[in-house]
Amino acid sequence: MKVVVSSVGPDIESAVSGVFGRAPYFLEVDTADLSCRALKNPAVEQSSGAGIEAALLCSTAGFL
Q: Which three-class secondary structure state does DSSP give residue 11?
């Protein structure tokens, strides 16, 4: 199964971010082998709408 994790860094050893919309990175993690693919979040500095932009970003990147 693959899951999307909001993360403070670009690799599997990075801490999980406490926020979604303004998380610095998103990781698509395959739970079978813990491989991951990182995506930098360009919406991290947005004043509003960061959550919606983050969801769209993950969706268009094929994460969701």
A: coil
1, exposed or middle or buried, with CB in 10 Å at 0-12, 13-18, 19+? exposed
Tokens of 5: 């994790």
Supply 11's token pair: 């690799």
**Against a cut of 0.85, is the pTM above it?**
yes
Question: Which residue is listed with tokens 């860094």?
Answer: 9
Amino acid identity of 64?
L
pLDDT in tens, 15-30: 999 999 999 999 999 9
In terms of DSSP H, where are the helices of the chain? 50-60
Which pair of structure tokens corresponds to residue 20? 């979604």
